[in-house]
Amino acid sequence: MQEAEPDRIETQEYLVNMGPQHPSTHGVLRLLLKLEGEIVHHVDPHIGYIHSGIEKMCESLTYPQIPYLTDRMDYLSAHMNEEVVCLCIENALGVEVPDRVKYIRTIFSELQRLASHQLWWCVMGMDLGALTTFFYGLRDREKILDIFEETCGARLTLHYSIPGGLMFDIHPNFQKRVHDFLNYFRKKLPEYDQLLTGNVIFQERTRGIGIFPKEAVINYGVTGPSGRASGFSCDVRKHLPYSAYPFVSFQEALDDRGDTLARYQVRIKEMWESMSIIEQLIDNIPEGDVQVKMKGVVKLPEGEYFQRVESARGDFGVFIISDGKKSPYRLKFRSPGFSNLSALHAMSKGWKIADLVAIMSSLDLVIPDIDR
Amino acid sequence: MSAIWKYISDVLKGIWTLIQGMRITGYYFFRPRLIVTQQYPENRRTLEMFERFRGEVTMPHNENNEHRCTGCGICEISCPNGSIEIITATVLLPDGKKKRIIDKHIYHLGMCSLCNLCVKNCPSDAIVMAQTFEHAVWDRTQLTKVLNRPGSKIMEGVKE
Amino acid sequence: MSPEELNAHIQSLEPAAVVVMGKQFPEVMVPEDQLRYLARELKENPSTAFDYLICLTGADFDDHMKVIYHLESTVHRNILVLKTRTLSRINPVLPTVSDIWRTAEFHEREVFDLLGIRFKGHPDMRRLFLSDEWGFPLRKDYVDEVRIVDR
Amino acid sequence: MAFSIYDFSTLTQSIHDGLSSRLSPTGTLAMEWAIVGIVILLFVAVFGLFLVYAERKVCAFFQQRLGPMRVGPWGLVQTIADFIKLLMKELIQPARADKFLYNLAPFIVIIVTFLAISVIPFAKGLQAFDFDIGVFFVTSITAVGVIGILLAGWSSNNKYSLIGAMRSGAQIISYELSVGLSLITIVIMAGTLQLSGIVEAQRAGWFIYRGHIPAIIAFFVFVIAGTAETNRGPFDLAEAESELTAGFHTEYSGIKFAFFFLAEYVNLFIVSAMATTVFLGGWMALHVGNLEGFNHVMDLLPPVFWFFIKVFFVIFLIMWFKWTFPRLRIDQILTLEWKFLLPINLFNIILMTVIVLLGWHF
Q1: Which of A369, B29, B43, D57 could form a disulfide with A74 if both were Cys (CB 3.0 to 4.6 A apart)?
Q2: What is the least distance, in Å, from the CA of A55 to any CA of chain C?
Q3: Are D92 and D252 in contact (CB under 8 A)?
Q4: Which residues are D222's β-sheet partners?
Q5: Is B25:D320 a contact under the CB 8 Å cutoff?
Q6: How far apart are CA A129 and CA D322, in angstroms?
Q7: Residues 166 to 225 of A: which have CB under 8 A from any B CB?
Q8: Which ipTM score applies to this complex?
Q9: Is A204's CB within 8 Å of D63's CB?
């Protein structure tokens, strides 16, 4: 039995609702925080504010119609989302796409990863209060979006990969533009380090904050750069290579510190790796068709198909249960943000509100990816 | 003593990293020609979209008010959002055969997600993506468009 | 461990489990009451070490509802598909694995939200995306005349 | 009426004489109060608006943007348009706010800035009150501003506001120390607390030059602490946009929000003006050694002009900080003050005292 302490001052938990409209929850994530002063005791993510039932919608769409919808989930890695669906359908049908398609898809994935990491970088700076990073990051991202727009006709929701190949061939200017961009960005990326990474305030804000050990990372299924920062080697590009990744050599950016700074630096390293991957591929794109002749109505043979790719946020998977009809019986997206979010409470417990913001942006959450 | 030196060197190193950051922002401050802002409504005259830019679906007509649409309805089927409706009519040809032609190719821009599937799947290349991007209107009924112009007919030589 | 050895290992662990070689990965169908035992064994035994739950999917098959676990071993790098099912539609209950793989906590909430399968022993069985009075949209008999436009 | 832009004391004296020849001494005093009040009010309004514009432009240029461009040429009228908008906006009051304190808080904040501005010497004779304890008055009156912020946070009945206000309280009270101590470093050298006296003492050379090492250290400590005092980035924890949405003024709208906004910028001016007065020689022109010709050309510029050049230099420096650095965390802010700035400052005072006693300064 608990004994009453009469002269103790009654304290209450300080419940704060962070979001759904909050500058650092990037969209419509709502966190219910239990605070004690500045210290975060409990984080309860409430999601679903942008749940659009994409899995349900996919059950009534034909297979070629699905990739366009996946652009709307994780809009920052739209091409990877399309790619995973296309790969899954192609594998199920036993279609082998030409090497040209594989190369272009890989280049696009890496450009998309760069664009996503640039946006993440500027948002991370902004969350920590360095507002100028936001504009520098977007300035560089704009160049990638221009490349996308010239070839795909869209900047964000590309819809470039389709089952059996690509929507169009690359634009004649594509290779030149990519080269220009690489030359430009090789000069700009060190500026990122000088402006933010090296900054003593930034280092103090991130070093040792939100340490998440490797066992916990695997247990919580945290993948992508956030997982690799804790030493969890989870790069699908390495372990289950797809598209043109078997043809390129690159290093998996790993770190074992598992804090916010490590998550930050893994992403910066990944940007360098992405640039090197693009450089290896861009001049060697083989000639050939960009599309395999597919049947008018695509029907997957009955069965279950699971395909994973490495999106900018981690291990992105699609699981299709087919009953042999022209639309999937059940389709499930394994979104990396969803699993990463589940670890937010464990990561940020005991840290301050300002640290929670830093941890959250180091996880790089995209809410439509989580809510689907 | 070493603790004091460490303290002092920490302070100086910290200040050095801060100066590094200020150097970057200062570099851009004194170079206004690097400004990247595009002043949108003012630069309308010079603004040009990429030729593949997906703005809206249109149906090109030639100078004789002819288009290439046969009214087959493949675009309607391939559209994931139901933003295309095809209304066909049947005409009696001079040789007595009945022929199905397009009456109205209705396009709901408000429902369209510009995925390009209809353009890609069109067997007679009758529809293309236009590069327009200023779609704001006062009333959403204005977003429903009829793509084939009134009185237009199908071009010679388009295969059914 | 090769797929054959894995099959034999699982059979020896749990005779009630049905192991088939699927199109991509070995698939194990396990009765619901044996799920937790098998899951724990698969995770904690160093020879299998399936420590990473990639994906947890619920699916409705009219007469029964399945939950499908995609497991990966970060040590041996092989993938296994674990399945279990419940026959009830009125009150479908399955045992939780959220204490074995913490990531299942959110995934199980999602399955509960969209399919209505309760997970016994889950620490926080609330709906995730939708409001409490909503139906279970991923069930095949879900009808929503207001929000779903049929074409 | 003799008037010179190099010396305003003749102008003020003639106004005083003119008034006292027509009115009783009490009437003269009342009239002078009214004039000073109106002048300061106009100055705060105009200069505050200008600073808002300047900040938007400066920040835009740091970020490779153009900033406001639409209203007026180069967007010059933008802040006036914004101000009119703020004036016309509805004043929303949270339902369960403490009505009296909620309404009082913005006034405390804005009145403090008026009071502090009254002792700033813009030029010779252009100073509303020339206290003999001017430095002390400024440091003490700016400390009152934190009460307004605390009240705003407390009375808004909003959890974000309260956290912001508490942070602000802890921060401002800590940094008061550094502001005071770094000013005292110079006071040791000047031998007076009177602001006009401090400026006059710099006729032979600015203190930042004459006091060399300790004065430079004191100047930077003052600028850092002053930035923290004004709740500006990288010390803008009280409003910490990405953490607390808008901190203590989350619940304020319309003209009450404008008060906080204006006060922030006027405080920025006060900090810069103090730095100018104490370290950079106030209205004194830039003189270099024995270059007679150069010094003479510099003297042609009126003192007010010199004062504002220096003020804008410091303001630009502070803006440069804000648009470059990430925000500190609350415990780091307090660590910075108590473990770095304060020891450095105390050491610096001793150093300065030794230098002054031994006459090692210029």
Answers
A1: A369
A2: 8
A3: no
A4: none
A5: yes
A6: 9
A7: 167-168, 171, 191, 194-196, 198-201, 203
A8: 0.85
A9: no
Phi, psi at D251, each rounded to 5°:
-95, 5
Read off the pLDDT of residues B14-49 as tens digits, 9 standing for 90 and up.
888 888 888 888 888 888 888 888 888 888 888 888
Residue D340 DSSP one-character state: I
User: Which runs of consecutive H residues, i.e. helices, occur in chain B?
Assistant: 2-29, 74-78, 117-121
Domain range list for chain D: 98-358
Backbone angles phi and psi of B98, in degrees to 5? -95, 140
Q: Quick count: other Cβ atoms within 10 Å of Cβ D87? A: 10
Closest-CA residue of chain C to A317: C55
Q: Which CATH superfamily is domain C3-120 in?
A: NADH:ubiquinone oxidoreductase Nqo5 subunit (3.30.460.80)
DSSP letter string, D173-187: HHHHHHHHHHHHHHH
Q: Determine contact, residues A154/B119, Cβ cutoff 8 Å.
A: no
Q: Nearest Cα to D140, choosing from D101, D173, D164, D169? A: D173
Quote the CA–CA distance of A293 and A163 in Å, as a whole number: 10
Scanning every residue of chain A, which has its alpha carbon at the shortest distance from the alpha carbon of C99? A219
Residues D4, D7, D10: CA angle, nearest 5 degrees: 75
Q: What are phi and psi of A239, to 5 degrees?
A: -85, -35
Contacts of D63 in chain B (CB under 8 A): 28
C8 token code pair: 């034999």
Task: Report d(CA A350, CA A352) in Å as an integer.
Answer: 7
Contact A135 D63 (CB under 8 A): yes
Q: What is the total residue count of chain B?
A: 160
Phi-psi region of A37 (alpha: psi -120 to 50; beta: other; left: phi over 0): left
Q: What is the pLDDT of residues D117-168, one digit of tens each?
A: 888 888 776 777 777 888 888 888 888 888 888 888 888 888 888 888 888 8
